[in-house]
Amino acid sequence: MTVSRRALLVLSSAALAVITVARRIGRGRLGFSEALAAEPPAAGETMDITLLVNRASHTLSLDPRTTLLDALRDHLALTGTKKGCDLGQCGACTVLLDGKRVNSCLMLAVAQQGRRITTIEGLAVGGRLHPLQAAFIAHDGFQCGYCTPGQIMSAAGFLAEGRPPTDETIREQMSGNICRCGAYTNIVAAIKEAAAKVDQNAALQL
User: In this structure, is residue 107 part of a structural domain?
Assistant: First the structure.
């Protein structure tokens, strides 16, 4: 079953309303029946959250419906993560959460507190390119470059999973990332080269 982005955000907003009610009860501000009758957070109401992004802590005041993608781009100026289809179908917005690849356009920012978030800006360490970044350059794994950050982040998550980096496996595991320029052959070659240089244990810590 395919869930639309609108439906996902509606359901997530409802879940946040339940959390808000639970917090009111827990703080002793309202009884159970009063809490159920209380209004959910109004449109425009913000929440203070702290996100751990690229090994740095950031405190933000966000509308609880803000996606992780929009928080990264609009509030932290990390524009390497791209907004493509905004439906979780193209992979341009891929980031890592606790070392695992996700579509940030489908994640609510307020639900990611306490998790390690890594974007393309945080992949290089100490001014040195990550092996995947270097391999994409060496193999010309891009044309317009718009999908490249998502491709690289998805590949980083794939390699951290420890799957065999064969042509077939790479194509299957990267199928959620669309390259409209059609640079797939070069992308596969880049990932195969980088696979021999990526420390899996280090990748899991991203």
Answer: no
Query: Nearest 5°: CA angle at 182, between 106 and 97?
Result: 30
Q: With the CA atoms of 9, 123, 205 and 195 taken in that order, what torsion angle do they form, in degrees rounded to the nearest 10?
A: 110
- 144-159: pLDDT as tens digits: 999 999 999 999 999 9
How many domains is the chain partitioned into structurally? 1
Q: How far apart are CA 123 and CA 140, in angstroms?
A: 19
Rg, the chain, Cα only: 19
pLDDT tens per residue across span 73-93: 999 999 999 999 999 999 999
Residue 135 included in any domain: no
Task: Compute the C-alpha angle 63/94/90, nearest 5°.
Answer: 100
